[in-house]
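User: Please predict structures.

Assistant: First:
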Amino acid sequence: MHEDHAQRPVIFNAQHIGKTYTMGEVEVVALHDVSLSIKSGELLVILGASGSGKSTLLNILGGLDVPTTGTVSYRGKDLTNADDKTLTLFRRKAVGFVFQFYNIIPSLTALENVKLVTDIADDPMDPREALELVGLGDRTSHFPAQMSGGEQQRVAIARAVAKRPDVLLCDEPTGALDFSTGILVLDVIEKVHRELDATVALITHNAGIADMADRVIKMRSGEIVEELRPVVRKMPSDLSW
């Protein structure tokens, strides 16, 4: 986080949130009494093993899910009791999502995949500019089958940031990639964070990635068990996973 971000406002405020899923006659507790605030412009890394509650927390922050208990707000507006229309507008206007699997459409070019978002956004980037930002300015007419996994993930990032989201939520964005390709994708996310001044929350199970964060939270069994700030923040190219 840049030094002036220390004075920036809290944009997400989650208080005592819990999430329980009912699967047949079995109740599964995905989150238990989690409280978390995220400041504007922060790069937050969420660490934890599979099943620790990371994705559930991210989905609640992004308006894809709602907590069973507790409250969550975005810029002072309650998301906990929001109706579907309000959550849809929140996701459309404020949040960009990047997932482990790229979810780009095979029959569309890179440019056309990004235009899916820019055509409906209020104040979008030029889709070519978004692809330039992720280093794919020369790949606009390529289809996903003509691209590597890392390039496809960068198209997904371009699509997510093209609507100029306030928040970028990334769920294991390097999980399907090899080491060197993952570094390139992390570099793109860090660049988006820096150049667009976006708030970024990034889920991973890989502790090495934590060194690029402003703040790290570690989760286990649906709870936050540790919070720390790296002493020296590293760029993705300096990381060793």
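Second:
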Amino acid sequence: MKQVMTPEIREVMEAVHYRPAVSVIMPFEPKMNLQTELSHALKMAADKVERELKEQYPGEAGSLVMQKLRALLKSLNFDTRKKSVAIYVSPVFEKILYLDIPVEEKIIVDESFEIRDLVYCKKQFHKYLVQLMSGKESRVYLGNSTSFVRLITNTPESVLAYKNDSPEKVANFSDMSERKEILMEKFLLHIDNSLGLILKAYQLPLFVLGTDRILGHFKKITRHNNAVVKYVHGNYEEASVNDLQSVLAPYISDWKKVLEINLLNQLEEAAGRKKLAAGIHEVWKEAVALKGRLLVVEKNYMVAAQRGGSDEVIYQLNEPYNKYSYIKDAVDDVIEKVLEGGGDVEFTEEGVLDDYGHIALIQYY
């Protein structure tokens, strides 16, 4: 997975927690909208923050944060080509981030900054791998929304490279079809070994294209079924790059579905390796120990909790009973701990992780 711990995110995460902390995440496309319209939307957001500050923090700290926020809004760069903006301000910290993707407006006044939404905004990208196989050759592509590039691998791309492989095993075969099957299996095994290295380097959703016969053989020998989002049946031996993009278009049009299948495949594989924690209690324990490689969580899942007798233990609550050990949202704390440990975070729609207690953590292995 692609790392999300950019220097900008790290700076916001490591900011001192000091109430009140205001997070404002908004659409911001000056090239598409009149500046007066954007200015009006920003003023409305500022007015909303001011009302919440007066209600929750009526003293000097609230007034100071409001002054800093209005000053930041006046300093915004209307010449940017970005699509959104995230503004973070507290009595001791301030930061403006211009983002590359569209967002919905969100305003939070709390004791810490809204890291969940920042990570969610920064995480959307469309990259995937394509393994094409035929009776004669193998090709691997790296695709995204704008390009489709062929990758160079160490595996011979033609089955003919295996024609003289282990001659003692095939020289006496009177049945040429049996010989072809042996060569094909060797070819596919080499493809699968090479694919393992590629998946380790890129860790992206994988589409595998080939004829019914080739895919049938490949499914029997591959060690990477859990990485495959979709097997696409057909003869694409003579297909151009444009042809392949057209073939894949229906399968990648619903990108959320692609990511969902890919993530569920990864969770299943991790479970088989005994490297998966599921449910907030187990996930918290492993995240605190900095064992998290990939956190997968439903985007609106939140858990109020109480700290237990050790850092690794929490108890889920409906209402707080000890303000010194109360955790407003244990999921946000887990997100921060995973990022601090060099891990990654992915979000899903509600209900996708029902079988995992709405949150799951793949450990390093």
